[in-house]
Amino acid sequence: RVLGVNGNVNEYALSSSGKEVAFVHRGEVFVTSVAEGTTRRITSTPSQERSVTWSKDGKTLYYAGERDGGWNLYAVTLAHPEEERVFYRATEFVERALLATPAVEFQPEPSPDGRYVAYVKERDSIEVLELATGTTRTLAPSKLIYSYEDGDVSLAWSPDSRRLCAARVDDSPVQRWYIADPANPDRPALAHPYPA
Fold first, then answer.
1. From CA 91, how far away is CA 114, in angstroms rounded?
2. Structure pTM?
3. Residue 14 burial class via C-beta count within 10 angstroms: exposed 0-12, middle 13-18, buried 19 and up
4. Which end of the chain is more exposed for a tag (fewer CB within 10 A), N or C?
């Protein structure tokens, strides 16, 4: 079945190879080829998905999905590794829930080394999920940061995956950036005002 995508794309993410773009259209995740324009639907659910992003190696897509009464984190990979490693030509996918709790979890941001996924929890804290163990840690508690609307909190990993920067984009005359260390969760996130 052909589905026209003529607008209503509210989020997108370019793969690290630059060959594919993942995007959210009408609450579903799609991937398209940059060169060919071939598009593949990734999700088909009665609820919506958002916050789509790629792993650094381009083998996994992460997103939040509204299912079972809450927002949860999901990852999708190709079901057949022998296929060409592109989503837009894949015949089948494997989706798994990374976090499915009563809390609101969204805006997944995978670390470059693939060990962690940072995310916003309940709009008022920054958490990190360690993928190998399934354990979560609070990096920035609610008193440091609050998300009033989608997209007003920005998460960025350092290239070596040792630090996570979180910033809230608002109209405040002094912005604050918070730097946290996932390997040392007992060390509090440090606030850096900008401009200094």
1. 24
2. 0.86
3. middle
4. N
Sheet holding 60-67, edge to edge: 49-54, 60-67, 70-78, 93-99
Query: Tell me: the pLDDT tens digits for 32-80?
Result: 999 988 899 999 999 999 999 999 999 999 999 999 888 999 999 999 8
Sheet strand arrangement including 153-157: 153-157, 164-168, 175-180, 190-194
Q: How far are the Cα atoms of 11, 41, 141, 185 from residue 22, in angstroms, in the given order?
A: 8, 10, 30, 32
For the chain, the distance separating the N- and C-terminal CA atoms, rounded to the nearest angstrom, is 54
Largest Cα separation within the chain, whole Å, is 54
